[in-house]
Amino acid sequence: MLNIKNITKVYKMKGEEVRALRGVNLGIGDNEYLAIMGPSGSGKSTIMNMIGCLDTPTSGEYFLEGQDVSKMDDDQLAEIRNQKIGFVFQTFNLLPRSDLMHNVELPLIYGNIPAAKRKKMAAAAIEKVGLSDRIKHKPNELSGGQRQRVAIARALVNNPSIILADEPTGNLDTATGEEIMAVFDQLYKSGNTIVLVTHENEIAERTHRIVRLRDGLIESDEIIKNGKH
Amino acid sequence: MRLYFYDIFESFKIALRALKANKARGVLTTLGIIIGIVAVVTTMTAANGLSNNFKESISAIGSDVLYVSRTPWVQVGNWFQFRNRKNLTMKDSEKLAQKLIDARAINPTTGTERRIKYRSRVLENIDIIGTTDKHIMITTNLPEYGRFLTGFDVSNKRFVCVIGAEIHEKLFEGVNPINKKIKIGRHHFRVIGIMEKQGSAGFFGGPNFDSQIYIPITAFMKAYGSRNRNFNFAVKAPSQESMADFEYEVVGEMRKIRKLKPTEKDDFSINQMDTLMNAYNNVMGVVVMIGLLITGISLLVGGIGVMNIMFVSVTERTREIGIRKAIGAKRRAILMQFLLESATICLVGGLVGVALAFGVTAIVDKFLLPATVSPGIVIVAMFVSVLVGVVSGIIPAYKASKLHPIEALRYE
């Protein structure tokens, strides 16, 4: 489904060059459940930005569902993100002053879906994460776990090819974190592809494949048999 | 194409949401625009009101009438070049009447100032106008009570007078003046009529029509002498369409009467209501332009305020912009959102400004001069508001659209 070939990413910061990625090769198929791990500075955020089409590589190729997205311009990338990627962030990143319905339907608005269809799709996504009774609430009226569930609904609403979650349980307590991971597990079982970036082993061990990065290169990439299928 | 409009409509809804979310800031931002619009609309309305008022006042002059006078009504620059012209005489007028057979009327007038007295009341420096019965054929002003002068009054040099509405008010204070005698200068005249209220062009240094007294020109010459008196002739053209040709004819006849050689310039002037209107429009035009310029500055200041707030808003919402981009908002969508926010704030400000201007105009209308806000002005005001919004918002909106999603998401 996606194939990353020899990706490098070099940033220029205050005259110095930072090599965040030094030649990464990664292939991800349909319906996989992956974790990307590594210490600070290993490039795991960078690789996530690459996969999520938030940024383009300095060199190398990235094929997403057959299309080479590594050379696309801003507008094209925006469209890819809208159609094929679903983001879940550590800090939820919801619009604080809009209700759940508006938050979840936002990707559909940018995707030019007409209002009636949008409402239906958003309602379905909210249903999937079990928050239908709170549909008119605003994020600040919800708990952390509930907010993250809304973020997941938003990530799902446009039926993306891949769901990218950056430390999704980072701002949650253990119990709530467990709830959220249960949601991800369920989504994997329903056929979605899920990529988590995490530094917590307990989280990573729920997936079925762990990719470890160090200093801008993949150190290891292993299928762990005791992931819950 | 339909998708494009849909795009804008959805951006507009998003913009409205954002504005609703922070109402207090929106109100403060728009204050400058409100003040600017009130100032602009009030200026334009006042200018309109003044113009209409002036037009109405001078309409008594008659749009199909030529006035033959010694000097032009509107003199720009060195007025003393006309100083050496000979007076027009009664004889000139009689000869003109003979020659201009297709004129509908010719009315000679002359004037002076006198003190007038009734019982114990005295008014100083009142315009006394010697005229004929043809006066009311020339102007649209008619007597409201009593009658005007007749041919009989003129031919018999009768000492009768028709007074203006203000003279009635001030000299007689509501007493019926008809058939009463007043003293004009050293002579007594019997009042036979009161003119209807005309209004005055006094605002611009013109005559106050309601403060004049009309007496037969023959009586005038008998009472105050005709030597060294200057006469004006009002000539009513056969029709409004032929004014230009008619003027040509009048000039020709006058030149003969005044015995001018072909190379000599005219030693008289032809004036029309149009002349006054043009002179007024020229002056008003400049005044209005300056007024609008000054009030326009307040709009400029308002616009700068909007731009300032939009910059702050963009910076404050950097994270939000990052989120929107991450879930697929294109640059243009972000640009549209912020541009529409800015335009909407200004449009609302414009609406409030127009509403307030209606209020201000109502006050002006009651106490100063008739004024109403025309729909045209409202539309211009709305358009200007939106324009200010777009111009003030474009740079902040562009800046917002150019934000890099990753950096924006990292913003604290």
Helix and strand run of chain A: EEEHEEHEHHHEHEHEE
Quaternary structure of the protein: heterodimer
Helix-strand category of chain B: alpha+beta
**Helix-strand category of chain A:** alpha/beta
Share of residues in strands of chain B: 15-25%
- Top CATH class of chain A: Alpha Beta
Main beta-sheet strand count, sense and barrel state of chain B: 6 strands, mixed, barrel
The total count of helices of chain B amounts to 13
Shape of chain A: globular
Mean pLDDT of chain A: 90
Widest beta sheet: strand line-up of chain B: 2-3-8-5-7-6
Computed CA radius of gyration of chain B, to the nearest angstrom: 32 Å
Q: Strand order within the widest sheet of chain A?
A: 6-7-8-3-9-10
Mind telling me which CATH architecture of chain A this is?
3-Layer(aba) Sandwich
Task: Assign a percent range to the helix content of chain A.
Answer: 25-40%
The ordered string of helix (H) and strand (E) elements of chain B is HHEHEEHEHEHEEEHEHEHHHHH
Question: What count of structural domains of chain A?
Answer: 1
Distance between the termini of chain B: 38 Å
* End-to-end Cα distance of chain A: 19 Å
Shape of chain B: elongated
How many beta strands in the DSSP annotation of chain A? 10
Characterization of this structure:
The complex is a heterodimer of chains A (229) and B (412). By secondary structure, chain A is of the alpha/beta class. Chain A has seven helices and ten strands. Chain A has helices at residues 44-51, 74-84, 100-110, 115-128, 144-156, 174-189, 201-204, and strands at 2-13, 16-28, 33-37, 59-64, 67-68, 85-88, 162-166, 194-197, 209-214, 217-223. In chain A, the strands form two sheets. Chain A has a six-stranded mixed sheet, sandwiched between helices. A four-stranded antiparallel sheet of chain A has the order 2-1-4-5, covered by helices on one side. The two termini of chain A are 19 Å apart. The model of chain A has no long low-confidence stretch (mean pLDDT 90). Chain B is of the alpha+beta class. Chain B has two domains: 2-57 and 278-410, no CATH class; 64-271, no CATH class. Chain B contains 13 helices and ten strands. In chain B, helix 2 packs antiparallel against helix 12 and helix 11 runs antiparallel to helix 12 (375-401). Chain B is elongated, with a radius of gyration of 32 Å. The chains are: A alpha/beta (229), B alpha+beta (412). Chain A binds chain B through residues 49, 52, 54-55, 74-75, 78-79, 81-83, 87, 89, 93-95, 97-98, 102, 106-107, 109-112, 114, 154, and chain B through 3, 6-7, 10, 14, 17, 21, 319-320, 322-333, 405-406, 409.
